[in-house]
Amino acid sequence: MSKLPKENQFLDLSDYGRPLAKIIANSLKNTSFTPIHVTLAFVVSGLIAITCILNGYYWATAFFLILKSILDAADGELARIKNTPSYTGRYLDSVSDIILNLLILMTIWYVTNGSLALTILAFFGIQLQGTLYNYYYVILRKKHNGDTTSRVFENETPKALKGEKQRNVDILFGLYTLFYGVFDKIIYRLDRDAVEAQKLPNWFMTAVSTFGLGFQLLLIAIMLAVNLQYYIIPFFIGYSLFILVFIAIRRLINR
Fold this sequence. Notes:
This protein has 255 residues and is mostly helical. It has one domain: Four Helix Bundle (Hemerythrin (Met), subunit A) (Up-down Bundle), CATH 1.20.120. Helix content is 68%, strand content 0%. The chain has ten helices and no strands. The chain has helices at 18-28, 35-54, 58-81, 87-112, 116-143, 166-190, 202-208, 213-225, 232-239, 242-253.
């Protein structure tokens, strides 16, 4: 199942794990495993990857980072297969992602004896990249009546869906706002007109999908595997400049 109708789907370079994610989700659809369990599994995979970085096992790190991306897709697939969408799952997924992103970059900083300031800047850049991609993607889904658990503007606590507790939604939404609020506001101010965009063509969304978390983790995995760990932080700082490039292209398309 997809977040978009078939006719509006694009090649999502950050979603390379989707085929395996579907297999995992289908294998769990008649079990007691829930999407939350799969989310917790990707957290474990991310923590194992961090442990591997600390011990210099970079090929193993690459494996667990890619596994993390696959499981990150599988939790949503399982929710759609079981028809159990939830804001609890949506916000737990996002909160887990940002914490793992920070820990991964801090671990790379530690093993490379790099600059803490540049590491924080790279983290900030990675989050802005992902926020821009998600911003455009959610706008596209809303425009074409796709998946609705993510909203263009996360400015108020949503009402709990069937099967979840409002208290859990309240807590996780509060954490989401704390962690992501500044990034959402920056991207909205940089491109507030995007919400009215009539055109977000497939080729454009494919290009912006290089900002997706799955693709970011793939790049980190590859760079670690080929011993380019010292270049990871500078790369993501430099790549963040493409945020302004993509915004400029989006505006040009919708003139």
